[in-house]
Specification:
This protein is mainly β. The chain folds into 3 domains: 217 residues, no CATH class; 166 residues, no CATH class; 158 residues, no CATH class. The protein has 9 helices and 39 strands. The protein has a 34-stranded mixed beta sheet that branches. Strand 23 and strand 24 form a beta hairpin. The protein is rod-shaped, with a radius of gyration of 44 Å.
Length: 713
């Protein structure tokens, strides 16, 4: 054998002996190398302790039982008030470990690290604690300690930390609830080489940092209790997804009016770790809140006394103390329910299936004092399912089936509106109103914030209901208005289609209106107490009307009623008055009114117009003209009185008929006649007897036929 062959054989033998020794003592050798490497490259500041060790050189698999890292002079904050003492692990598993690099280059290179049940031990203010620090402090400390790892070359494709636990409170007392939170951390492409730290998007020496928290239960400084089933954050995708979140008022604030919220899912998109930690202004692409419930708890005082706007701000501020100045591309709420609860059990308001979208939002902390008026956004979309209130609107209950609002389209739509009054314990008729379809066009919340002029169109389709106007009877006209309307809102058009209403007043009035179609244009409601109501144009059609006035024992019905600007028409008018002598009847084919002073009617409740034409009136019945002079105290006459003041310039009666019995001083006179009538000014004050209309009346009477029968003559 030549010299070269002997040398090769010697090298082979040495390699075989080394491989055999390494195979036999591989655990001890690599364990020693790992400990020495950690000590040398950390300048003695970190010591590695291994309880058990196993390695398979062929496939690079290694498992370490109960390893621990002991730190010396390593602090988690700049003030050096929190010192990390050690990190203990239940087990560490490594896949595809590069044994050659570990043995000869002292570099740790592997495909995957699996770390189970890490525990963090710290010393804070001289007191040793287990896991008593915020996770973000560890992240901050590691990110700021690049130089500490500059001598250690670690490259691992994936690191997963399972079943870890960390306490969320800085200061722990011996008898306090530890409040441990389970977490899992996954790091992709972990690399401690100094060149890799130049990339500002890397977190914890990794291309991606994923954190999953489970079973978070924490009392916030505001007094709320926060519970989270799980939360997942990804630095690469820049999203934070929270599942099973609950924020409820704790015992400290349970007696106050507060808000409680639960949700199946809460997602933040385009959010970075620095934004979560509050190191940068918050800028989000979207926030999505899904499948949850929002409950507003109100106490007795809040339910009986109108709350000041500052109370609303305080409630919002409690939930938003964590917010700094921030911008948000969109916030979305999907399939949410809202309840306002009085004294923990009485539901005052409920709204189901809420879908809400707001885009391009900008908020700063100075806005919270007047959040609604200062909030900046581009668009709002709102959809809801059923809505119900319990006596909150002046004693009325309101509910509807669906609502849709788009700020961009300036459109509000509501379906299935129903309103009733609560008459429990009251001697009052029940009022109910149903509106199958309701809409407002032209309304913008942004313009409302700026108090910019808005021109609104309101539509009611197929409304019907029973309306009790008894409460209006005691209101006297003082020339002022209780309800004032903002001057920057203009009612360009109000349209009511095919309405059907039944109106009652105490027990004195019952009236029905069928097939009502109404259009109001340019309605101006009062802005100050002395402003009049003004209306530029009105168009009205009514298919049928009937009414009963108990005090006058009068029944009235009509066919079609129509109104055009300045012109009123009634068709097929029928009146019946019940008297002891019998029924008095008046049938009129048509009544036409021209030159109506509409504003005087609306504001002064006085009827003024130029011309009145009564077509083919037919009057029959018994009328007592002067009562019984033998016993005037027992006068039982039924004399009609004027319900309002009125003034008519010209009156014409065409083709009138009389078939009546007139009673004067107990003497009946039967008259049957045909006539025409033209008169001059025709007027009366409210509650005047209609018989006084003949006094000082300038009139022309044309008698076409006459039959008279005086009893006993």
């Amino acid at each position: 054998m030549n010299k070269t062959g002997k040398t090769a054989l010697l090298i082979l033998c040495v390699f075989i002996i080394f491989a055999v020794l390494l195979s036999i003592f591989r655990g001890s050798v690599i364990s020693y190398i790992l400990k020495k490497t950690v000590a040398e490259k950390s300048d003695g500041r970190v010591e590695l302790v291994l309880e058990s060790f196993h390695i398979n050189i062929m496939n690079g698999y290694m498992s370490v039982g109960k390893p621990a890292l002991l730190f010396s002079g390593f602090y988690m904050n700049e003030q050096k008030s929190i010192r990390i003492d050690k990190i203990v692990f239940e087990e560490i598993e490594i896949d595809k470990l590069n044994v050659w690099s570990l043995l000869f280059k002292r570099d740790l290179i592997a495909s995957r690290f699996l770390i189970e049940k890490p525990e963090f031990w710290t010393t804070e203010a001289g007191v040793k604690n287990k896991s008593s620090f915020h996770p973000e402090k560890l992240i901050k400390a590691l990110n700021q300690s690049i130089g500490f790892f500059s001598n250690i070359n670690i490259r691992i494709a994936d690191i997963e930390i399972q079943s870890g636990s960390v306490m969320l409170s800085e200061y722990a007392t011996p008898d306090a609830d530890p409040g441990l939170v389970d977490f899992t951390i996954i790091l992709e492409n972990f690399n401690t080489h100094p060149d890799s730290a130049i990339n500002p998007n890397r977190i914890l020496y990794s291309d991606e940092f994923r954190l999953k928290l489970r079973n978070l239960n924490k009392e916030l400084q505001s007094g709320y209790i926060l519970n989270i089933d799980s939360a997942l954050f990804s630095s690469r995708h820049r999203d934070l997804i929270i599942n099973g979140v609950s924020l409820q008022p704790g015992e400290k604030i349970a007696e106050q009016s507060n808000i409680g919220i639960t949700a199946k899912k809460l997602a933040f998109n385009d959010i970075g770790l620095n934004e979560i930690r509050g190191l940068e202004d918050l800028g989000l692409q979207s926030v999505v809140l899904s499948n949850g419930t929002l409950i507003n708890y109100v106490n007795e005082k809040d339910a009986t006394i109108h709350k000041d706007t500052t109370d609303e701000v305080k409630g919002i501020d409690q939930l938003m103390k964590v917010l700094y100045d921030f911008r948000l591309d969109s916030i979305s709420i999907n399939n949410f329910d809202y309840y306002q609860v009085h004294n923990s059990n009485d539901t005052l308001i409920s709204v189901n299936e809420i879908d809400f979208l707001m885009t391009n939002i900008l908020i700063d902390s100075a806005m919270f004092q007047n959040l609604f008026w200062n909030l900046h956004f581009d668009d709002i979309l709102l959809r809801t399912g059923s809505f119900t209130t319990n006596g909150l609107i002046s004693g009325y209950n309101l509910d509807y089936n669906r609502l849709f609002y788009s700020n961009d389209e300036r459109s509000l739509r509501m379906d299935g509106i129903h309103m009733t009054n609560d008459t429990t314990g009251m001697d009052q008729a029940k009022t109910n109103l149903s509106i199958p379809e309701f809409s407002i066009d032209g309304f913008s919340i942004q313009d409302l914030q700026k108090r910019v002029k808005q021109h609104l169109s309101i539509s009611f389709i197929n409304p019907e209901g029973n309306l009790d106007i008894s409460s209006l009877s005691g209101n006297k006209n003082t020339g002022t208005h209780k309800f004032l309307f903002p001057g920057y809102l203009y009612l360009d058009r109000i349209e009511l289609s095919n309405g059907n209403f039944h109106v009652t007043k105490d027990s004195t009035l019952q009236a029905g209106f069928d097939g009502l179609n109404l259009i109001l244009n340019n309605l101006h409601l009062p802005e100050t107490k002395n402003d009049p109501v003004r209306l530029k144009h009105i168009n009205m059609q009514l298919d049928h009307m009937d009414a009963y006035l108990k005090n006058s024992s009068l029944n009235v019905s009509t066919g079609n009623i129509s109104y055009k600007p300045g012109q009123f028409s009634f068709h097929q008018v029928h009146m019946v008055q019940n008297t002891p002598e019998g029924d008095n009847r008046l049938r009129i084919k048509a009544i036409n009114i021209k030159g109506l002073d509409r504003e005087r009617l609306m504001n002064d409740h006085e009827l003024y117009f130029n011309n009145l034409a009564i077509i083919e009136p037919d009057l029959s019945g018994h009328f007592n003209l002067a009562g019984n002079d033998k016993n005037p105290q027992n006068d039982t006459t039924h004399v009609l009185t004027a319900p309002i003041s009125f003034h008519i310039d010209d009156v014409a009666v065409k083709n009138g008929k009389l078939n009546t019995t007139l009673i004067y001083k107990n003497e009946p006179v039967h008259i049957k006649a045909g006539y025409n009538l033209i008169s001059g000014p025709f007027y009366a004050s409210k509650n005047d007897s209609l018989l006084t209309l003949l006094d000082n009346l300038d009139w022309l009477f044309e008698l076409n036929s006459l039959e008279a029968d005086v009893k006993g003559h």
